[in-house]
Amino acid sequence: MDKLLIRGGKRLAGDIVIAGAKNAALPILCAGLLTADTLLLANVPRLQDVATMQKLLGQMGLSIDEQGDRLALCGRDVARLEAPYEMVKTMRASILVLGPLLARFGEAKVSLPGGCAIGSRPVDQHIRGLQAMGAEIRIEGGYIYAKAKKLKGARIVTDMITVTGTENLLMAATLADGETVLDNAAREPEVTDLAHLLVAMGAKIDGIGSDRLVVQGVPALHGAQHSVIADRIETGTFICAAAAAGGDLVLKNTRANLLDAVVDKLRESGAVITAGDDWIRVQMSGRPRPVSFRTTEYPGFPTDMQAQVMALDCLADGTSRVTETIFENRYMHVQELNRLGAGIEIDGHTAIVHGVPRLVGAPVMATDLRASASLVIAGLAAEGETLIDRIYHLDRGYDRMEAKLSAVGADIQRIK
Ligand code: EPU
Fold first, then answer.
1. Residue in 30, 74, 116, 240 annotated catalytic
2. Is 74 a known active-site residue?
3. Tens-place pLDDT, residues 224-275
4. CB–CB of 242/12 below 8 Å?
């Protein structure tokens, strides 16, 4: 199993090109199931979750032609309407095939995702929404069996804001009979990016970017071209790395207005952040100030940045409070950060971070994707050597993170 060895204390300086967003690319690949025509996608990130999704869709009969960050998908020969447990257990986002399969083919068999390191993460809202659109759904042997001759438009109010739930129902609604209203819809930029692709494919969607999506179903969708938006979480992760280790980084192919809540917090911590249309510059010297925050849905502070900003808070000159409201168990990084000398206590859904003047390298274990990123950030700032085990979690969601960091001066290497 690969590990990362980091010798901390090096300033970061230079340019990093940000990849396309993982959480936009995954639903967008599934949109390839909605049409028999070809989708031409650009800026697709090269990461393990995308490879897993390509494998799953390939097994279903979707043809995928890959050239660097460009993919051509063709859904003409899709025949196997199933997402098996072996795939879904490695990647929960596999649930995103359910809506498209049901909408275009009238049936689907998708494994129920199992447990997850960051919380229980049920998919009841996906199922309830599809039932409201007329699908017959039964759960048997760990699988969701869904059938509907033709989905029908419906008004759906989800109990909570769900990102992949909104995406699944939005894709299903594009081919349903009549009008579907999705209220309490997720407004994350990745949902908006998917909606723009669907419109390019001929879908009729109003309210894009709002919490009320109104979809007029059409009989069929056609091919389209689309470039995936920048990964705001990769962007935020590198901003935190520069703020923790000190330095002067320019992040390219990304936009500050995808992550205003994070940029505001980083400025509060003392980072000097300037931005243009497609770049962000972050400069930091000295010790960060503590920043307190609560995670919420977009446009609030993203749960996917909680661990990384907490790593920065570990080094702050004072105490901060971090409250996680989206997932019930997203503090697996806390014990590992404490192994590096951080002073974090957990009180229910809140972490109280007592900043320390320095962290000291140690062997640590990655537990989930964003937890791994927080350990990299802490390791870059810590004195001495940090050895991070189980970095397959990191590879799921970051495109060659160690290569990007070593190119800007970090002492980081992958150990096979
Ligand atoms: N929820 C339910 N029932 C449902 C759906 C969601 O109870 O049917 C609950 C969840 O358990 C959670 C909350 O609603 O407590 C929000 O979950 P959501 O459905 O929005 O999360 P998701 O769609 O499974 C996506 C991202 C996550 C990100 C969350 C929150 C993708 C592929 N994944 O997950 O990304 O944390 O939204 O923004 O888009 C990551 O990239 O590291 C990651 C975990």
1. 116
2. no
3. 999 999 999 999 999 999 999 999 999 999 999 999 999 999 999 999 999 9
4. yes
